[in-house]
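Q: Please design a sequence for this.
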């Protein structure tokens, strides 16, 4: 008989011991009994026969473990680092539905993918619906057969199958006709440097549009020629359609996989293809860093600065960039970070020679845009300045496009009674409600609470209610009023709520069916449209004002990234409306001297003891009763007092009440992060506190933000 330590899936407890007559590999999935239920678990090790009675493993899911030794090591290390149960870490290696579907594994899902080359498709005459399905596949790679049946007539699918343009089950390479790009000297040098030092982490620090993508494509090409696989991470799902078609065009004979949370059923299929070695390049978001691809040769993290790499809304709170870095080390693959605006920590690590930094200062095609600030001081109530409107008019006359960035969605973001000063806030959260005019409601962006717009102040009964704070909807209305003849589109989570509608609007923009785009953060990154001649940042100050140590860095990145959307194919201009025109971060973007920003920010961080000089751990106690929660935070603070860190708090979190939970925070500043983690691991165990820490405490190691 063998005895195994089994970490249960979605479980906060330490591993439990079970037995089996079979020999099972570490990392294998098994089904184990828990009381009267059957649960998915992972073998984390063989143990000696325990003194207590154990139960029999019901079923072995993986005859051979899909995880190699290094991946198992990675899971253990990350569980330790992020103070998370090991079972939760193992969950990350598998697509989310694996727990439920593992028993029906033999029943394969059918899906459709392209079979024929693009050139052949272009030369063939297809029906309207056939073309639609083919276009869909060109952008999303695969479609679930059952979904295809709902979207397209059965006859369309059959006819494409008969003609051999598509096939069911497995993907094959497609090819695209695209002119070949020859790297310039600077780009080639980076490729050579990286290939010469494959075991050092590398950062490509190049302005937007400087050819970073072409550089990592070339490195990927070399890696693929050694029969190794490539993992390509992007921060957001919205960036995958564009990069996918570009990757496909660059590697027409390779199998490309896609992995992110919006895939539904095909997520599992893509995962299986990748794990079975059928994918050469896997393109995915944060969660893709865990896909147990064998024979990995390169991990690319594009836009490494992006906060989406940090999982903070859901356990475990890991940062995919750090996971990528460690995975690359363990599996001895090349690690490549790319960014026009790296994190301050990453910049510092490069300065300290902990990673190699490769700079690119110019665009191979197109010029950098001209950037200017529009001083908005003393201009009350003006949403779009005359300067910006005049420029927009010019751009439209030349048949080019304008992108306007607005930090918040909705119409107005502050609804206030003019007589008593009351601000309409969410009953569940400590935040102001946003007015959504199109829907005629006021809404909370944190918990989704919505109500019809009140006619009277609930506090004093006055009907003198005003709208302050400008959101995308308001700007859209304003723009439509000023330019009634132009086609305006809004891109925010309210308007664009699935990948299809996103793809549609991106296609419309590239086909020049849109003149002006008004959007939130969704339009800041990665998008590459040649005809954007003007970028307007409607309100830069809002981002600087957030109560967080990273606010300046965020604002700098946002302004720089947003500026990067301009001038790719035509001459570009950027206009930043701000009431703080002498801000260092803004000035460094305007002058194109990014290092000024990094140096000044490093000085500030050092003075304030923030990362990268000291590491942070944020502990948040959450509960329904404010006093109880506060008491728990105080108990934790008391226990942590002798620890190797400085403790700030407990204080009320900046958003004190969120989704009906009161929140108290402790911020730990640590000189030695591993030591601090060890202390927390030992002292915050169940029992030590008189309550279960996992239930009420959120422990975020190296949080991305502190509010
Ligand atoms: P980044 O990833 O830094 O934003 P990209 O790799 O997307 O930059 O390059 C921006 C544009 O310049 C793309 O259209 C790309 O095809 C083009 N480009 C990049 N390198 C070269 C080159 N060496 N020669 C010609 N065009 C290039
Ligand atoms: Zn009032
Ligand atoms: Zn709310």
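A: Design:
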């Amino acid at each position: 008989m063998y005895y195994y330590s089994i970490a249960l899936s979605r479980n906060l407890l330490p591993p439990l011991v079970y037995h089996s007559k079979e020999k099972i590999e570490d990392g294998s999935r098994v089904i184990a009994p828990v009381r009267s239920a059957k649960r998915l678990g992972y073998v984390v090790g063989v143990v000696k026969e325990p003194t207590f009675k154990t139960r029999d493993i019901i079923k072995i899911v993986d005859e051979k473990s899909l995880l190699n030794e290094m991946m198992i090591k990675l899971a253990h290390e990350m569980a330790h680092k992020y103070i998370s149960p090991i079972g939760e870490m193992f969950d990350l290696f598998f697509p989310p539905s694996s727990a439920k579907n593992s028993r029906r594994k033999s029943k394969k899902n059918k899906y459709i993918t392209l079979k024929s080359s693009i050139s052949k498709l272009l030369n063939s005459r297809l029906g309207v619906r056939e073309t639609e399905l083919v276009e869909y596949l060109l952008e999303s790679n695969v479609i679930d057969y059952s979904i295809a049946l709902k979207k397209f007539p059965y006859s369309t699918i059959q006819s494409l199958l008969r003609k051999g343009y598509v096939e069911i089950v497995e993907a094959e390479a497609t090819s695209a006709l695209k002119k070949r790009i020859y790297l310039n000297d600077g780009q080639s040098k980076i490729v050579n440097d990286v290939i010469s030092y494959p075991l050092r982490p590398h950062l490509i620090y190049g302005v937007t549009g400087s050819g970073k993508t072409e550089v990592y494509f070339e490195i990927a090409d070399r890696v693929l020629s050694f029969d190794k696989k490539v993992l390509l991470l992007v921060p957001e799902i919205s960036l995958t359609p564009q990069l996918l078609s570009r990757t496909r065009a660059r590697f027409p004979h390779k199998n490309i996989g896609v992995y992110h949370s919006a895939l539904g059923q095909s997520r599992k299929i893509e995962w299986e293809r990748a794990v079975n070695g059928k994918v050469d390049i896997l393109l995915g978001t944060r969660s893709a860093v865990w896909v147990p691809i064998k024979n990995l040769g390169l991990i690319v993290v594009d836009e490494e600065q992006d906060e989406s790499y940090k999982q903070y809304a859901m356990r475990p709170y890991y940062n995919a960039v750090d996971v990528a870095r460690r995975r690359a080390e363990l599996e001895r693959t090349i690690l490549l970070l790319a960014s026009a605006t790296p994190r301050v920590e990453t910049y510092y690590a490069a300065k300290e020679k902990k990673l190699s930094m490769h700079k690119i200062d110019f665009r191979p095609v197109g010029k950098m845009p001209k950037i200017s600030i529009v001083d908005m001081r003393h201009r009350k109530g003006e949403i779009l300045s005359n300067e910006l409107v005049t420029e927009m008019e010019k751009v439209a006359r030349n048949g080019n496009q304008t992108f306007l960035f607005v930090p918040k969605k909705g119409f107005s973001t502050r609804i206030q009674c003019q007589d008593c000063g009351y601000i309409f806030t969410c009953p569940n959260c400590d935040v102001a409600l946003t007015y959504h005019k199109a829907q005629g409601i006021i809404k909370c962006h944190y918990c989704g609470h919505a109500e019809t717009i009140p006619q009277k102040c609930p506090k004093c009964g006055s009907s003198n209610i005003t709208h302050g704070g400008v959101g995308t909807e308001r700007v859209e209305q304003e723009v439509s009023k000023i330019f009634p003849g132009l086609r305006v589109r809004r891109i925010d989570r309210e308007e664009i709520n699935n990948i299809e509608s996103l793809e549609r609007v991106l296609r419309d923009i590239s086909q020049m069916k849109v003149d002006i785009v008004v959007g939130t953060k969704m339009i800041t990154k990665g998008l590459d449209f040649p005809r954007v001649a003007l970028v307007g940042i409607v309100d830069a100050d809002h981002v600087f004002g957030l109560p967080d140590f990273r606010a300046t860095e965020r604002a700098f990145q946002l302004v720089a990234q947003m500026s990067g959307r301009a001038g790719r194919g035509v001459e570009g201009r950027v206009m930043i409306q701000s009431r703080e025109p002498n801000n260092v971060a803004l000035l460094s973007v305007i002058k194109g001297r990014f290092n000024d920003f990094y140096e000044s920010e490093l000085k500030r961080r050092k003075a304030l003891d923030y990362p990268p000089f000291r590491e942070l751990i944020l502990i948040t106690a959450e509960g329904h009763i404010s006093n109880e929660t506060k008491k728990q935070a105080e108990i934790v603070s008391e226990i942590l007092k002798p620890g190797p860190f400085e403790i700030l708090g407990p204080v009320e979190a900046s958003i004190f009440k969120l989704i009906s939970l009161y929140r108290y925070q402790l911020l730990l500043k640590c000189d030695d992060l591993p030591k601090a983690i060890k202390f927390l691991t030992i002292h915050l165990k169940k029992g030590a506190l008189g309550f279960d820490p996992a239930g009420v405490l959120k422990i975020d190691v190296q949080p991305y933000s502190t509010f």
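Q: Thanks. Anything notable?
A: Confidence is low (pLDDT under 50) at residues 98-108, 169-178. DSSP finds 23 helices and 31 strands in the chain.
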